[in-house]
Design brief:
The chain has 14 helices and nine strands. The protein is an alpha/beta fold. It has one domain: Rossmann fold (3-Layer(aba) Sandwich), CATH 3.40.50.300. It is elongated, with a radius of gyration of 24 Å. The N terminus is likely disordered. This is ATPase. One of its GO terms (molecular function) is ATP binding.
């Protein structure tokens, strides 16, 4: 297992401009995507030779599932289909958000490549848009990934040289669907072998398979999410898609030593020793001692199981980060704390 604490060569994602964040449902995928966006926005912008100064770092956080999870995370009103600034970090870095609507993206696409204009809106009224994205889900994924990749490639209107966004973070579909979602070429192969759709898919794949992209997996230290993470990494590599890091979310503090853990998980806590330690504070009554001993045993067994899952995440050439459990819930203060943890471990 490569950790950021002991690997200087893996302390950053050099050249990566698109960070795709996936994970099993319930692991905190959207939360980690938001924290990563804040962490990236906090980076000091790099200056080119001859530049007097550069504007603050600008990061785009993209949501593709239409759940308005990003708006809820940043305590903002529901986001429309347009890029809006949702956060500013110390130093002036900005996080912008975009919730991609497949219908609107398809209307844009039809207008761009086929110059349909008002005719495309007529197709929407007749339900043709819903029909197309339902019977050909590969087209929907091309639209979602295509809009994201356009933001990655977009240049500044001021000088035409710098990128409009320094980084793009995608809150992507869950682990079980991520390879199919990103491998848009295979999804459209039976639909379009030539033409604008094919060209769009090829352009998307050039970004998604390049060194500009990294796919990060969010997991908890539990058997099912860990196994899904390992399966997802194997699938991505088989499809020649770029694997990023593993983010262990909601990691809990360990309050016992290794010897105490093994003893508590096996034979249990020495109640006499525990009572002696609680005596000076007047908490050595048998019911309290028994309850605390039971909690210690439960804690020890859970920690040992989590250690087994950590070992399972020892994937070659894959960096692992850990984020703490936010016991008071996720708000902007908590997100900033997670962002600092990611930066401190070299993820941004």
């Amino acid at each position: 297992m490569v950790t950021k604490a002991d690997s200087d060569t893996a302390r950053d994602w050099p050249g990566v401009r698109l960070h795709v964040v996936t994970g099993k449902g319930g692991t905190g995928k959207t939360t980690v995507a938001g924290a990563l966006a804040l962490a990236l926005a906090g980076r000091v912008p790099r200056r080119r030779s001859g530049d007097a100064e550069r504007p603050p770092t600008r990061v785009l956080l993209v949501e593709v599932e239409g759940r308005q999870g990003v708006a809820q995370l940043f305590d903002a009103p529901p986001l429309p289909y347009e890029e809006r600034r949702i956060a500013v970090v110390p130093g002036g870095g900005e996080v912008w958000a975009l919730v991609i609507d497949p219908e609107q993206a398809l209307l844009e696409y039809l207008d761009m490549f086929y110059k349909l204009g008002p005719a495309a809106r007529a197709l929407k009224r007749f339900g043709a848009i819903d029909f197309a994205t339902t019977v050909a889900p590969g087209i929907r994924d091309v639209l979602l990934t295509g809009k994201t990749c356009e933001a990655v490639r977009r240049r500044s209107t001021e000088d035409g040289r710098t990128f409009h966004y320094d980084s793009v973070v995608m809150d992507a579909p869950p682990t079980g669907r991520i390879t199919r979602f990103l491998n848009v070429n295979s999804e459209v192969s039976g639909l379009a072998r030539v033409g604008p759709i094919r060209n769009q898919a090829d352009a998307v794949m050039r970004v998604l398979t390049s060194a500009q992209t990294a796919v990060h997996f969010v997991t908890l230290l539990e058997e099912m999410p860990v196994q899904e993470t390992l399966d997802g990494i194997a699938e991505l590599r088989s499809a020649s898609l770029p694997v990023g890091g593993i983010v262990v979310n909601q990691a809990k503090d360990v309050v016992l030593t290794d010897d105490q853990l093994k003893r508590a998980a096996g034979e249990g806590v020495d109640r006499a020793e525990l009572a002696a330690g609680l005596g000076p504070v007047g908490l050595d009554q048998p019911p309290i001692v028994d309850a605390l001993a039971a909690l210690a045993t439960e804690h020890a067994r859970r920690v040992l199981l989590e250690q087994e899952q950590r070992e399972a995440l020892s994937v070659p050439e894959t960096a692992v980060y850990e984020l703490p459990l936010l016991t008071e819930g996720v708000d902007r203060v908590g997100l900033d704390r997670l962002a600092r943890a990611l930066r401190g471990q070299g993820a941004a």
